[in-house]
Structures are given as structure tokens and as C-alpha cells.
Amino acid sequence: QAIEELGVAGYNDECRGIVQRYTQQWRETITRIGRWVDFDDDYKTMDPWFMESVWWVFKEMFSKGLVYRGYKVMPYSTACGTPLSNFEAGLNYKDVIDTTLVVTFPLVEEPDVNLIAWTTTPWTLPSNLALCVNPKFEYIKIKDKTRGKILILLEGRLGQIFPECKKADVTQEKKDELFEVLERFTGDKLVGKAYQPLFPYFKTLDTAFRVCADGYVTEDGGTGIVHQAPAFGEDDYRVCVAHGIIGKGEGIPCPVDDNGRFTKEVPEYKGMHVKEADASISSACKDMGRLVIKENYSHSYPYCWRSDTPLIYKAVPSYFGAVESIKDKLLKNNDLTYWVPTFVKEKRFHNWLADARDWAISRNRFWGTPIPLWVSDDLEEMVAVGSVEELYELSGVRVTDLHKESIDHITIPSKQGRGTLKRIEEVFDCWFESGSMPYAQQHYPFENEERFKKGFPADFVAEGLDQTRGWFYTLMVISTALFDKPAFKNLIVNGLVLAADGKKMSKRLKNYPD
Asked: Does the model's pTM come out above 0.70?
């Protein structure tokens, strides 16, 4: 909001000034350290010629069918107001203590019988649309003598609500004091059963508030019944689409805005940040008589690597690089490289490539290289622009700068009778620019073609261990997508000098000596 008040042009001018200021400081510091760098022939990712090569990279990937628009549940930074890629979500984990709840969902046909679910994110409960069980596991209906309720849960998870059952020496006599077994059955017997929603916000959805089944439900934790909020969980979304609870794509209930605050769809919590709403939602569950257990839970949780705020998972439209479709090529190209230490290549990096997911390359930001994709209002016609000259040929407008303020007003006439094509609002994930460096640093293919070909793949690169999921990865993805080659032949993984507090030195933590 503050950026929009200042204006995108004014904001980007401030960013440009910051880059120039730090460029001089970087030069002074690196010279004192004794590192050899060609400062006079450097590149900055904000240089128009660098950005033009990034455009070319995108156009090549788009032409090969390796870019698509999708609607997925993504790691989302509420401070930055943008989705992140899955590898960015892994850059900054912290051990935190969160509130967990076990709550009841009474069956419509038998109101005195309650399915119970455990959640580590109480703020997602207002968005509950379904429950999920494992169809093959054995569930149990019990009369809880301590709470006076009839409950259904996974038999192997009785310890979640009766801690005494976790003890190896618990006797049958003790169990009989706690509960009475009324019935046993496999999870598939629960599928399709309707239950009473916890909150009234989405009661008009005829397809919602039913029990689904999926193999992702495990015996490792919780009650064996998982609450589904499809706007805020990747598996939740997949399961609810598969069972017809929601349709595929945009339009599913998502009562949280771009800054992580509840919208008017949940009036009791409107304007409240989701991570601050847990206590209020816990109290509401208790007041309704639906709370079984409230506990503190210590676990590792992802934080935004830029803003150091907790991430949430949120369904958002995004543009993706189709990494999964070239996974075999990535693994083959990794085999062609030599790493020191070798185990980083063979273990950490290999495993990361083997489990590679499609890469969310779009960001809802202002400073950075705009994604050169012009689309029709119905999104049926998309034109990727790969150069300044091509933009001129399509639009009749010639530009010298490629930042948002210089190109967002430019339109392209449709060739399919769909009116006027406008550029999408997003800019590239900065890691897309980093991965494009081998080409963009030489303004390839617009200049230096022979020089580029002689020096690609690079003989040697080096960076820190944290770049296994960052620069090393994006270099490999883009070079494989463009040329089916690794971007480098040899690689040294630097260790990290830690700060006095034992953490990696970072600008974000300010834990480094002057």
C-alpha cells in the first residue's frame, strides 16, 4: 500500500539508488579483502541489457512449453505479500512453540457421535471444508468416560487424547477407566459421512463438510482424522478437488488477504492477522463445546528469508517453470559435473533434484525484472516477448528501460480477435535472474555469441552450502531447460563462517561484526 502511494516509479528509483550506493561499498570492501574482481566490466541485474537476456531465457522456456499458469497452494510471505518457491521456504526454519487443538465434528446423522481432528494451525479452522481419513487404517468409536462424549479416531492414536495410553505398561484396567470401545471399522466406512461444520462461514457450499479418504493420512501424529482447509494446504487442496468438495482452480473459499489478514467472509476475525488469531479461535471452540484438548507444540517452522516473518501456505495463482517434466535431464546433467565435496553433489543436491517440484517463478513485487508475458483478459491468448526489438514490433513502442514503470502501460493488439493484450503484473523471482546469469552477464544472444559459446558451461563456480537449493539449483534448471547441459563443469561448495551466536552471518539478523 505504501509503495502504491509513493508510485511504482518513485519506489523503483529508491531501489536503484540503494543498488548504486552498495555497489561502491562492495567495491571498497572486496578490494580490502584481496579478492580479484573486474569491477569495471561488471553487471547488475537491473541493467536493461541484463534484463533483456532474462526476457530471452523466459521466451525460450515458454516456447518449449516449460511455463504455465497454475493455481496451487504455495509458501506465502504475508509481510512481502507474495508467494515463494518451495526451495525458498526451506531457507529459514526456526524452532517455535505453537498452539494445537483437538476439536469435535459431530455427525449429521448421529449428533452425539463426534469425529475428532488435531491441528497445529487453529487459524485454518474457519476455512474447514472436509475431513480426511486413511481408508485402510482401523478406526475406533469410543465412549470417553472422562469427557462424557462419544468419539471416533484412529485406534493407534488414542494416546493423542489419553496420554496414559502412550505408556508401555498401561493396563487394560486403566484403559477401561478412560474409555469404552463401542465399535471398530476401517476408514473407508466413514467416507461420505456428513458432519456439522465448526464455523458457519461456508455453510452454503452444498458439496462441503463430508469425510474424504486418502493415503497421505498417517499414524505418526494427530488423531488419524485430518481437517481439510483446501485454501491453506497442498494435500488439503488435492484431496478436496479429488473428492468433489471444491472445483479445480480459482474460486475456492480463501478468507485471508494478501497481507495474511482475515477478510469480511469471517467477520469475527476481520482484519486480524492469521498468526495472531489462534487464541481467539481456540476460545471460540471452547465456548461452542467443541474443544477436546488445547496444548503447546514445539516444532520447526518455515520463516520468510527476506522479512523473517512466519510463512503460511495459501492457494494463489502463479506462473510456474515445469521443472518436474525435465527431472531426468537434471539428474543426467548433474552426473556430468564434478563437485568438492563430492557428497554434496551425490547426496544433498541429487536428492533435491530427484524430488524437484515445479518452480513458482512469479512474484507480486515491484522492483525486479518484469515477466514479459502479455495476455488477453480471458487468459486464452499469451504472448511471451523475448527482446526490446520484439516488443517494438508487436506494440509499436520502443523502450530503453525494462522496469515496470517503463513497460506496464504498453499493450499488444490480439492476433486472435481477443481485444488488447496487457502485461501480467508480476516480476520474476530473483532466483530466476540469478540462474540466467551465464547468458545475461554477456547479453547473450544479442551480443558476444562466440565468447559465450567458448565459456559455456563455465569451467568453475563456487558458492556456499546454502546455495545447493538456490543458485546451484537454478543454474542447473535453466541451463538444462535451454541447452540440456549443466551450466558448470566444476563446483566448490564453500563452508560458512558462523557468527558469534552460532548462526550464519546475515544482513537480516545483523549478527556480523562491522
From this structure: yes
Amino acid (one-letter) located at 303: Y
pLDDT tens track for 355-375: 998 999 999 889 999 999 999
Residues 6+ apart with CB under 8 A from 464: 493, 494, 495, 496
Runs of H (alpha helix) within 313-387 = 327-335, 342-343, 350-354
pLDDT value for 333? 98
Tell which residue, 17, 36, 16, has the closest CA to residue 27: 36
Q: What angle is formed at CA 427 by the lines to CA 422 and CA 431, rounded to 5 degrees?
A: 150
C-alpha cell at 213: 479418504
Residue 263 C-alpha cell reads as 477478510
pLDDT given for residue 306 in this prediction: 85
Name residues of the chain where pLDDT drops below 70: none
Q: Which residue has the cell 502501460?
A: 409
- Whether the Cβ atoms of residue 178 and residue 143 lie closer than 8 Å to each other: no
Give helix 327-335 / helix 471-483 axis angle, nearest 10°. Answer: 110
Residue 345 DSSP one-character state: I
**What was the pLDDT predicted at 248?**
79
In the chain, the amino acid numbered 203 is K
pLDDT at 130: 96
Query: Interior CA angle at 227 toward 225 and 229, to 5°?
Result: 155
Does residue 448 contact residue 488 with C-beta atoms inside 8 Å? no
Distance CA(58)–CA(373), nearest Å, equals 9
Grid look-up 539508488 returns: 17
